[in-house]
Amino acid sequence: MRNTAPLFIFVLFILIVSDLLWHIRSKYSRQVGVEPLDTQEERELIRKAISENWCPYWKKQTLDSRHFFWKQKHVSGRSVMYRKKLVSRIIVSEKLKLVYCPIPKAASSTWKYLIRREEGVEDYWNLTSSHSRATSGLKYLIDYPSEEIERILTSPEYLKFTFVRNPYTRMLSCYVDKFQNKDKGSSEYRKFMGHLFGWWDENLFENYSITPEERNLMKKHKFQNKALRGPRPSFSQFIRTVVKQKRDRMNEHWAPQWYICGIDIIPYDFVGKLEHLEDDAQLVLSWIANKSVHLPTSEEIGFPSTQARLLEDVFFDINSMFLIRKAFAPDFKILGYH
């Protein structure tokens, strides 16, 4: 009879080691307040964050315990410059000493309005102008050389911040605003339909007007005219289409928040949450020397809320929630949403 003792000992060793690793992983997960990571992409994001001694699990900050998440480390301006869309997005206010990355559907219009007003931009109230780098009257990271970008991102003189939103309500707000409330005959509706179904060339068309080149391009797509004449996409269709897109091809209104604002590379001092806008905004406003500065209301900026929180029961089903949770898993985990 063969001696099975060595095999038994080997199997027992494997079981003991596996159990030990499982307990270590579970202990760490409980400490940081999240479940164990699932995908390699998420692991890589967290690895990068932890390697820079940065806490990636955002917690609501109170006015009495102001806390910044980034322990100052070296940031390469050259590496940041490689992310062209990122440096073209991030606003720099030299007057207010603010570095702000706007995330659509997360109070971005509010903060742009405030910064443009305090910077003395003449038409600060014009939201259309505020959403275009060419007409906003503001400076962006891309306007600086790499050495100056590095200085700005590492200087304690600047407060680097952004505001995020629960991925569920952000997606619903985007759908209601861009696909349900927009006039079907409007150029903006056509633009977002094109971004959703992949027949709009962002590099070719920089405004909403229909050009001969655009018309010829759109004729190449057999379903385009039918899609515009037909019924609006349902919320479930919107979600099913979005989750199939690559993140670098997504429209900014539904692209992952961690990605469009470079939370893996930009040393943010503070990340506020739309759900606690009034309280979290005070942390940013306290940075501004002018005590008379206040956060503009939706009535002031002329941009009414979509009331997405009140519409959740109407639009969401189990499948839509599952698809959002899976496709935007890094946003949920890194930004601390459940």
Automatic annotation (TrEMBL):
Official protein name in the record: Carbohydrate sulfotransferase
Keywords from the named record: Glycoprotein, Golgi apparatus, Membrane, Transferase, Transmembrane, Transmembrane helix
GO cellular component terms, semicolon-separated: Golgi membrane
InterPro entries named among the record's database cross-references: Carb_sulfotrans_8-10, P-loop_NTPase, Sulfotransferase
Annotated GO biological process: carbohydrate biosynthetic process
Membrane topology: Single-pass type II membrane protein
UniProt subcellular location: Golgi apparatus membrane
Pfam families: Sulfotransfer_2 (PF03567)
Domain of life: Eukaryota
Protein family membership: Belongs to the sulfotransferase 2 family.
Example GO molecular function: sulfotransferase activity
Transmembrane segments: 6-24
Signal sequence residues: none
Presence of the UniProt keyword Transferase in the record: yes
